[in-house]
Amino acid sequence: MTSRCRRLLAPCSIGLILLSLGILTFAVYFRCANLGWKLFWFDENWNSLLVSGRWFGELQESLLNDRELGREELLSVQRLHPQRGPWWTLRAMVNDQAQHPPLYYFLLRLWAGLVGDSVVSFRAFSVLAGLLVIPLGYWLGQELFGSRRAGWLAAALIAVSPFHVLYSQQARPYSFWTVTILVSCIALVRALRLGRRRDWVWYGVAVIVGLYTHLLFWLVLAAQGICVAAGTLDLKARPRRLPPAWARYLQVLLGAALSFVPWALVIIRGRRIAHDNLNWMEAGGAPPVVVKAWLGGIASVFVDSAELRTRLTREGVVAQPAVLPFLLAGLLVAYGLVFAVRRSAPPGRWLITGLFVSTMLPLLLADGLLGGMRSAVGRFQIPAYLAAQFAVAYLLASKSESQGVFRRRAWQAVAAVVLLAGVVSSAANSRLLWTWDKRERTDQLLVAEVLNQSRPALVITHATMENFVRTLVLNRLVDATVRFHYAPEPGRPRIQGEGREVFAFHASRPLRRSLESEGWRFEPVPRLPYLWRLKR
User: In which domain, by residue range, is 481 found?
Assistant: First the structure.
């Protein structure tokens, strides 16, 4: 038996293998649990339209022109059509979602063409990306800190993280974006360490993929620039030319910028629609609300629950015991970041610093100058959250190897508690129809309950993109006898309400005045200020 086999079969190694298999089992289960049952919400329905190659202008002319539609007619526009291939998806992105780079949607169209266009099929692409993040986390942890234990802890923290599980179950680009962040960081660290040209080429390819996945990858590129500059800068020397690593990074930056020009032109062309799609970010919040959102967001990487989130969003509850897990997670992250920056060797300390600062700071500045809560949106902070996870992994790995049995055992217990918190949080969230990020949309369930009790029912709304997607969400929740009428503005809708209960849903003032002129009376539905029963 070789020495390698003896080490593998040693009791500690067997225990570690069993623990790794257990965590991997949890990771797969949490990402696949109730995948088709969970609420297919607003953004996912919109994404299904884009992937199927349809955009609102086309639908407004062909489908939403003062017509009444039922379940199958609405579902049909979200299904793939053999005559609308991946290039139709790009066309839809250009027309309706220029602020989102197209790569994820293009790949999702290819994926759906192979496995189908059901809810489970759409989400399965994110599940695979979310599982790929785990070995990539191990690889990057090992590259950053030169420690298998740190790599293993980083992978384990990602595997059971309620935040990463959440976005691994949604038909949205954030799980795939996480993959591009990790791959580009791995490629950069290897290029800095080995200095080989092919590693820089791979890094350049990873950067282009990242830029075409999410616009905020530019912040990741800035963080990587901090890492390169800090690792090559020598204040005492006066070099006559740029260090090789810095020169290679600038070449990659220039090549990536040139490659992004085509989509930059698309963004400029569709800037008005892009602004309309992003104006929700301009809604401001009081400082206590923003601080609580920051705390809940970064803590959700390690611990999360619907009940704790609800308590956290209420006023004056920061001191309550129920919020203690969030506070402890925040303190652990703060200590981990300070420890990693002070103790880890380059490039680990600089990459962690860059990812955290270059993501947080620009969004905070944007909020301060333009107003809004961009910095409190968790999915925008994925690079910073990854930096926090790797910092905590390095902290736990270093402390669990420290001298002194008591100190070592104490930190091993801390690591076990952190992993257990992720397991318990993800297990609790797996049984929920919706999670904290969809809280503002859960009123759709109340609307669906009212409509199902009133079947057959007719729902009238004016034909805007937002209202149309809202009704797509409702369409998956209500009985097949419920139908939707999309009224034009201006104009009077032709309503045939005989034998059915008629409702107005998110009706604009012009639509309400038009219906009132036709003799309809608006009766508010309790708890739903934008839903009315119509009576003559």
Answer: 440-535
